[in-house]
């Protein structure tokens, strides 16, 4: 983002619009998105034990469903996607998020879908990825990669992050300041 875009973002999240993305802006953004989240613990903590208690074993395909995304503009590598394999416990929530994004000016982000269920370890480790439960989704990895700082270099729109937050999903872009392609239903 350029300085004027950062100023607009700062206004949106309720902090001093000075064009500098630092600790005060990060904290304001986190407060803004957390304030949109449902009250109470809708989703588990991201720790492996809590994930197993809530979602079951990672890689258990019997808990997966095919979420119909026909007509929402979801594409993977330029090819239209009709369904997304995800955990049955996230399907309704993820469907609502994707429908709202599809109805928004940011619909194009769905044409850059990069996966949901993928039984693998986290990058750089041996713990299961949230994708191993079908409880994470990646969007637009080319502009929101693992090591790309948000919002200075990454391009994930705050409006997309807000839609995920409304369902209690966290985005790593606002949670850790990078990997803004990744969203997961954890508190």
Indicate the topology.
Layout: H1 3-13, H2 23-36, H3 48-55, E1 64-68, E2 75-76, E3 79-80, E4 83-87, H4 91-102, E5 137-138, H5 158-166, E6 170-171, H6 172-176, E7 182-184
Antiparallel strand pairs: 1-4, 2-3, 5-7, 6-7
What can you see in these coordinates?
There is one protein chain. α4 packs antiparallel against α5. This protein has a single domain, classed as Muramoyl-pentapeptide Carboxypeptidase, domain 2. A three-stranded antiparallel sheet has the order 5-7-6. By secondary structure, the chain is α+β, with helices and mostly antiparallel strands. The protein contains six helices and seven strands, in the order αααββββαβαβαβ. The mean pLDDT is 95.
CATH architecture: 2-Layer Sandwich
Globally, the shape reads globular
How far apart the termini lie comes to 27 Å
**Low confidence ranges:** none
Total strands: 7
CATH topology: Muramoyl-pentapeptide Carboxypeptidase, domain 2
The helix count comes to: 6
Largest sheet: 3 strands, antiparallel
Spatial sequence of strands, sheet with the most strands: 5-7-6
Domain count: 1
Quaternary status: single chain
**Radius of gyration from the alpha-carbon trace, in angstroms:** 16 Å
User: Structural class, from helix and strand content?
Assistant: alpha+beta
* Residues in helix, %: 25-40%
Instruction: Give the SSE string.
Output: HHHEEEEHEHEHE
Could you tell me the mean pLDDT? Answer: 95
CATH class, anyone?
A: Alpha Beta
Strand content: 5-15%
Quick structural gist:
This protein is α+β, with helices and mostly antiparallel strands and 187 residues long.
């Amino acid at each position: 983002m350029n300085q004027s875009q950062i100023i607009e973002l700062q206004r949106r999240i309720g902090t001093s619009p000075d064009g500098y993305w630092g600790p005060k802006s990060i904290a304001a953004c986190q407060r803004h998105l957390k304030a949109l989240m449902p009250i109470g613990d809708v989703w588990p903590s991201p720790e492996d034990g809590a994930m197993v208690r809530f979602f079951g074993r990672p890689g258990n395909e019997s808990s997966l469903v095919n979420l119909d995304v026909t007509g929402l503009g979801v594409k993977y590598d330029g090819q239209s996607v009709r369904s997304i394999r995800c955990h049955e416990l996230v399907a309704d929530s993820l469907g609502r998020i994707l429908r709202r994004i599809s109805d928004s000016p940011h619909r194009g982000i769905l044409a850059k879908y990069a996966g949901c269920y993928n039984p693998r370890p986290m990058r750089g480790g041996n713990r299961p990825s949230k994708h191993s439960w079908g409880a994470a989704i990646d969007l637009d990895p080319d502009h929101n990669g693992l090591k790309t700082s948000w919002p200075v270099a990454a391009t994930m729109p705050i409006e997309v992050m807000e839609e995920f937050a409304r369902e209690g999903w966290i985005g790593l872009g606002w949670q850790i300041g990078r990997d803004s392609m990744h969203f997961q239903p954890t508190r």
